[in-house]
UniProtKB/TrEMBL annotation:
<keyword id="KW-0694">RNA-binding</keyword>
<dbReference type="InterPro" id="IPR001412">
    <property type="entry name" value="aa-tRNA-synth_I_CS"/>
</dbReference>
<keyword id="KW-0820">tRNA-binding</keyword>
<feature type="binding site">
    <location>
        <position position="164"/>
    </location>
    <ligand>
        <name>Zn(2+)</name>
    </ligand>
</feature>
<feature type="binding site">
    <location>
        <position position="151"/>
    </location>
    <ligand>
        <name>Zn(2+)</name>
    </ligand>
</feature>
<comment type="similarity">
    <text>Belongs to the class-I aminoacyl-tRNA synthetase family. MetG type 1 subfamily.</text>
</comment>
<comment type="function">
    <text>Is required not only for elongation of protein synthesis but also for the initiation of all mRNA translation through initiator tRNA(fMet) aminoacylation.</text>
</comment>
<dbReference type="GO" id="GO:0000049">
    <property type="term" value="F:tRNA binding"/>
</dbReference>
<feature type="binding site">
    <location>
        <position position="161"/>
    </location>
    <ligand>
        <name>Zn(2+)</name>
    </ligand>
</feature>
<dbReference type="InterPro" id="IPR012340">
    <property type="entry name" value="NA-bd_OB-fold"/>
</dbReference>
<keyword id="KW-0862">Zinc</keyword>
<dbReference type="InterPro" id="IPR033911">
    <property type="entry name" value="MetRS_core"/>
</dbReference>
<dbReference type="InterPro" id="IPR002547">
    <property type="entry name" value="tRNA-bd_dom"/>
</dbReference>
<dbReference type="InterPro" id="IPR029038">
    <property type="entry name" value="MetRS_Zn"/>
</dbReference>
<dbReference type="Pfam" id="PF09334">
    <property type="entry name" value="tRNA-synt_1g"/>
</dbReference>
<feature type="binding site">
    <location>
        <position position="148"/>
    </location>
    <ligand>
        <name>Zn(2+)</name>
    </ligand>
</feature>
<dbReference type="InterPro" id="IPR015413">
    <property type="entry name" value="Methionyl/Leucyl_tRNA_Synth"/>
</dbReference>
Amino acid sequence: MEKKDFKRTLVTAALPYANGGVHIGHLAGVYVPADIYVRYLRLRGRDVLFICGSDEHGVPITIRAKKEGITPQDVCDRYHKLIKESFEKFGISFSIYSRTTSDVHAKTATEFFEKLYEKGEFIEQESEQYFDEEAKTFLADRYIKGECPHCGNADAYGDQCEKCGKDLSPTELINPHSTISGSKPVLRTTKHWYLPLDKAQPWLEKWILADHSDWRSNVVGQCKSWFDMGLKPRAVTRDLDWGIPVPVEGAEGKVMYVWFDAPIGYISNTRELLPNDWEKWWKSQDTRLVHFIGKDNIVFHCIVFPAMLKAEGSYILPDNVPANEFLNLEDDKISTSRNWAVWLHEYVEEFPGKQDVLRYVLTANAPETKDNNFTWKDFQARNNNELVAVYGNFVNRALVLTQKYFGGKVPPCGELTEQDKEIIAEFRDVKTKVEELLEKFRFRDAQKEAMNLARIGNKYLADSEPWKVFKTDPKRVETILNLSLQLVANLAIAFEPFLPFSSEKLRSMINMPDLKWDNLGQTDLLVAGHELNKPELLFEKIEDEVVEAQIKKLEETKKANEAANYKAAPIRTDVDIEEFSKMDLRVGTVLECEKVPKADKLLRFLIDDGLEKRQILSGIAKYYKPEELLGKQVVFIANLPARKLRGLDSQGMILSAVNNDGSLSVITVDRPVKPGSEVG
C-alpha cells in the first residue's frame, strides 16, 4: 500500500462492555499495546488522540439488571466507574474515556442513523422472532434458553452454546423457553432495518485483501473467511427497551442494535472531547485512524464499521487494525462468567505499586499473532529474572557506585577506549530497532530490544569492573560510570511507553527532566556534575508465597465453579424391592480407627455391630483423620463376604457420599441408636 504522510493519528481502543470489570485478557489484547503505541507517538512529538469509553447498551446489561433488581443504568454506572478507575491505575493514558449513555453519544448515533436512512442505505425486512406472551415482549437471543442441538446442553442461549461454543439461532434450540417468564415463546412477525453488507462486499474485499494486505495475517485471514462465506444483510435494530431509540416512524419499541451504536462511540467520544474540532480527526484524509481490538472484534472493525462509515460518506476508514489473539490463564480460557480471570481492580490491591510488572509480563507474552498463556509462575520468573536481575540490577549498580565514589554526582567522561566505543555503538542501534518494531505494532519484540539496553549495561559493568579499577585508576572509573549513567538515562526514555511508572521513578532518581524520543541513543543526557537523587530499588523480588496465594485463589475459583455447575448423576435403572431388601444395612459404633501402614487411602475400623466387634477397611484416609471418626455411628453393609485388603480382612463396607469434587463424606446418623440397628 502507498505510504501516506499523515498529520495526525487517531487511536481507538475497543469499548469495554459495562457488565463487569477489566481483566488481564483485555489489558494484553487491547489496552496495553494501544497505550504503548500512543505514548511512543507522544514522545516523538506527534499529534495524537487516544479514544475509548464504556459500551453500555445491549441485552447482557438488562439481564444483569433484572437479576439484581436494579436498573440497567445502575449497572452501567457501577461498572463504568470500576473500569475507568482500573485503567487510570494502570496508566492507560486515554485522551478521553467516556460512555455510550452520554447525551453526546445519543445525539451522534441518532444523526448517523438518520443520515443512512435518508440516503436509503438500509433495507426494511420482516422476520419471525420469538415473543413471550406472558411478558408481552419480543425476546432477544440471550433471553431464550433451550437444549443445544449439537451437544445436548440444556442451558444453551439463543445465540450461542457456552458449553460447546457453537453459534446458534433461537429457532435451532430444542424446547426453548423464555428466561423472563419461563414460558414457551411463540414466533411472531416483526420489522427491522438491515445494513446490506452483501452490497459492500466488492469494495471491502479490494480494500482489505489488496489495499491492506500488509495488515496482520490473523486480521486479513478472518476477513477473507467471511468474504468466502459471502456477506449478508445485518440487522441494525432490535426489539428492546434499553438503548438508543430508532429515529424512524414505525419503529416504536425498537432500539439500535448494540453493535451498530457502540463503534459510533469512538466518534461521539471524540466529539465530546473536542466539540468544535472533532471533524478533522474523523473526516480529514491526512488523519491516520488505527483501531486496537481483540480478535473477537475483527469483523466489526474491518467489515461492519467501515461499511457504516462508507455508507455515511464523509468519514475516513481505518489505516490499520492491529488486532491481537486471546490470552489464556493457566492453560484455560479466560471467562468472565466463570470468574476465571485476574481482575485489574483486585491486582492493584494485592500487588500495590506493581502495575508495571503486569504491563511488562503481558507485553512479553502478548498474543500478537496466536493465542498465548499467562501463568503466575511465569509472572514471578519474568519479574525476578528480568526486571529485578537485569534492568533493576544494572540501574542500582550504576547509581550506588556513583554515590560511593563520586558523592552522587555524574563524573566527567574522559578518553574513550575501544570497549567504550563498542558499547556506545551498541546502544545507539537499539533506538532504531525499537522504533522500527513499534511502527510495525510489534510491541513484544520492541520491549525485548529495550531490555537489551539493560543487558548491554550489565555486561559493560561486569567486563570493566569499576569496583576493582577504582583502586588503581579512578579517572577510568569516571568514564565507565559516566557512560553507565547515560545508559540509565536512555533506559528511562526507552521504557517510558512500556513501563511509565518505573520510568517516572527512574527519572526522579537520576533527577532527569522529561526527554523526547529523539534523545534516545545520546551519550550526553546527563552532564558532568549533575546531581543524582538517592538511589532506590526500581523493582523488588516477588516471593513464592505471594504467587502460591494467587494460584490457590484460582484453584478455589475452579472448585466454586464446579460446585455451582454440579448436577447429580442420572438415577440408575430400577431395582426390584426384593433384591434391595437382601442388602443388610446396619449402624455400628466406631471403637478404633487408624491408618493402614503403607496404604495412603485406607483406614482400619473396629466397629461394634451390636453382636460382635468387626473389622472394616475403608478408602477414606484422604478425607478424615482417624481421631475424627472415633465414637461416630456409621452406616455399613453387614452381609458382604469378607475380602482381604493389604493382608487384612475387611468384613463389610462403610457407606460414604461422593461430593461433586470427588471427596467422600461418611454417612452417619443424626442421633444415637443402638449398635446393630437396621437401616431401611
